[in-house]
Design a protein that fits this description.
Helix 8 packs parallel to helix 9. It is built from twelve helices and eight strands. The protein is of the alpha/beta class. The chain binds guanosine-5'-diphosphate (GDP) and magnesium ion.
């Protein structure tokens, strides 16, 4: 993006005290440090140099994987594969275990289609949903920043009209990253989505990102509202929303997975943004997601600055966790 789109850092919504330079891979590694220490550190503790692989060690490895938030199905599958490899003498000593696990996990996650599928010729619409406080507005700001960096024109729709502060927060992000915003006093989210679709088409925007509420009076109301927003934008823009991303707070661990299942029943999710990975050692839930919901994680959030969003890449992610 052009530096002219960036507001003074003092007014920025992100408040990270220790900015991390050096590109997204470094940020990713830094953000995943807690999870890395738990998974790689735990394994290192049992895989001491020269130790032979035997049933006893296999059990210790299994225990380490269980505490890494991967979910029981993933752990079982990994350990079965490890046991088979041990019994067929494919691997013999402790030093081969981590490379073996890395390979298994990378292949597994590599099946995900993590690309954003937006139409090339007209405005691409991304609906962003998730429970309150999961990181929706922040992730939208970072996504907008990313698109701006690709030279795209970005419009944001402030459809979380349930909380006044939410509209203000999105406005600050819009200003910060150089995006435009549609907001309204009318307090009807679908009406805001309608206006935003009009403006996106008339104003020749490349991407429209829709922020939504995470909590209403009831969950039913919330789901009905999200469905209405989808219908409204779909009538204006063919195929919209083209991406329906759910933002999950990684610090909530397995709970995030049940949230995704509930949202997916109401609005078909095309991808997940796993936010706040930097604040948790529970990053292992990515592996559980592959087994339990199998909706691709498309982005991970590793901080509160515009740059702190990494496109999910299985090799990079697994590399950052195990190296
Ligand atoms: N450390 C960290 N904080 C985050 C991340 N994403 C969001 N947050 C913080 O989480 C809080 C809630 O985020 P917000 O975007 O307002 O959530 P929303 O209610 O879903 O829109 C804010 O204080 C954000 O700065 C992240 O990737 N890392
Ligand atoms: Mg919000």
């Amino acid at each position: 993006m052009t530096s002219s789109g960036v507001e003074s850092k003092d007014e920025a919504p992100g408040q990270s005290s220790a900015p991390v330079g050096g590109g997204i891979f470094k940020r990713l590694r830094q953000g995943l440090r807690k999870t890395h220490d738990k998974i790689a550190g735990g394994l290192r503790a049992v895989l001491s140099v020269g130790r032979r692989l035997d049933e006893e060690l296999l059990e210790e490895i299994e225990e380490q994987l269980y505490v890494a938030d991967m979910g029981p199905a993933t752990v079982m599958r990994l350990c079965d594969a490890l046991r088979d490899a041990y019994r067929s003498s494919e691997i013999r000593d402790a030093a081969q275990v981590v490379p073996f696990l890395k390979e298994q996990i990378t292949v597994d996650l590599g099946h995900w289609d993590t690309a954003l599928h937006l139409p090339a010729s007209r405005v691409g619409v991304i609906l962003v949903a998730g429970v309150n406080g999961s990181g929706k507005t922040t992730s939208i700001g970072k996504l907008a920043h990313r698109f701006r960096g690709e030279g795209k024109r970005v419009l944001l729709a402030a459809c979380d009209t349930f909380r006044a502060a939410a509209v203000e927060q999105l406005s600050i992000w819009a200003k910060w990253v150089g995006a435009d915003i549609v907001k309204s006093e009318s307090a009807d989210p679908a009406a805001v989505a309608f206006d935003a679709s009009d403006k996106a088409l008339a104003g020749d925007y490349d991407v429209l990102i829709i922020d939504t509420a995470g909590r209403l009076h009831t969950r039913r109301n919330l789901m009905a509202e999200l469905q209405k927003i989808c219908r409204v934008v779909g009538k204006k823009i063919p195929g919209a929303p083209h991406e329906t991303l759910m933002v999950l707070d990684a610090t909530t661990g397995q709970n995030a997975i049940s949230q995704a299942l509930r949202f997916n029943e109401a609005i078909e999710l095309t991808g997940i943004v796993l936010a706040k990975l930097d604040g948790t050692a529970k990053g292992g839930i990515v592996f559980g997601m592959r087994d339990q919901i199998d909706i691709p994680v498309k982005f991970v959030g590793v901080g509160q600055d515009p740059e702190d969003l990494a496109a999910f890449d299985a090799d990079e992610f697994v590399g950052a966790l195990f190296e």
